[in-house]
Amino acid sequence: MKVRIKNSLRKFIYSSINYKHWCLIKSFMKEPRYVFNCLFRQKNKKTDITKKILTEGFYTGDLNKIMGDSSWENTRSELLKLKDSEEERCKSKQTRYVARSKELVDSGFINEFIKESGLAKIAEDYIGGSGYLSVIELWWAWPNFKKSGYPQFHLDRGDFRSLHFFINVIDMPKGSGESLLIDKKKTDEFLSKRKTWGAEMLEDKVISDVIEGYDVQNGSGPSGTILMFDPGHVLHCGGRMTPESERLSLLVSFHSKAKFLKEGFLRPSTNFH
Question: Which residues of 224-238 are buried (b: 16+ CB within 10 A; e: fewer)?
């Protein structure tokens, strides 16, 4: 009887709310005071960058202007060296991962990069409080490589607020596997018409009525182009490449303290001030 009531309640909740609301409820159940403070206590302290992410779902900028040309070039040089050293392994194993989080998080130049770029503070400002560096990975896809990302639009799971930073390490024109996303307004329009839960991969035909005539946002651009977005709030994908193109991207991701999935965290965001 209890199981039947529980299942009926779950079905009612699933049919009444969308995925973003469900994430908010789950996060609030885990850390109620923290989530309340993030949503309301910090509401009027947002920067122009995070205000744009909150209203439109994304922000695109030039990392050179945020850090200064020399600082980014130093980081870029180290990332290119790392890619060159791992190129043979990546091709033999057919993997896009030049380096994963555990390998990069203790690298001195990566720690300095996150501090100097101010990414942790941007993430904290968006979330509304301190959080965690949860992912830092260097992705590479060479010409004709087919596994450079997730080419179907989807939402990520597990948090009421999180922030992805995709940074172009090399020049990446359109069609080079850059991140694509549908802004907050259009994503909300889609979610109002169709129930979807995190990590469900959606074919373009499923969202065709929403994106018809819509200019999909993208992270293409020269080295240093940075795309920021909440992966649980806007539909996004990546890895749609033309045969001759190349992708080299650094992914940095921060989550809140109320993330409810079991994946471990790397470092508190306050470590990078």
Answer: bbbbbbbbbbbbbbb
pTM of the model: 0.89
Alpha-carbon distance of 59 to 73, in angstroms, equals 22
pLDDT in the model for residue 78: 95
- For the stretch 133-158, pLDDT in tens is 999 999 999 988 877 778 889 999 88
Domains of the chain: 2-272 (2.60.120.620)
pLDDT, the chain, mean: 87
Q: What Rg value do the Cα atoms of the chain yield, rounded?
A: 19
**Per the structure block, which two tokens stand in for 236?**
């996004």
In the chain, alpha helices (H): 2-16, 19-30, 32-36, 48-56, 63-67, 69-93, 101-104, 108-117, 119-127, 184-193, 208-211
Q: How many helices (H) and strands (E) does the chain have?
A: 11, 10
pLDDT per residue over 236-262, tens digit each?
998 888 888 999 999 999 999 999 887
Q: Any idea which residue has 């948090």 for tokens?
A: 159
Of 36, 265, 55, nearest to 160 by C-alpha is 36
d(CA 194, CA 94): 35
Contact 260, 158 (CB under 8 A): yes
15 vs 248: CA distance, rounded Å: 40
d(CA 179, CA 38) in angstroms, rounded, equals 27
Placement of tokens 């992966």 in the chain: 231
What digits encode the pLDDT tens for the residues 82-92?
Answer: 999 999 999 99
Distance CA 53, CA 56 (A): 5
* Element housing 250 (H / E): strand 247-256
- Per-residue pLDDT, 269: 94
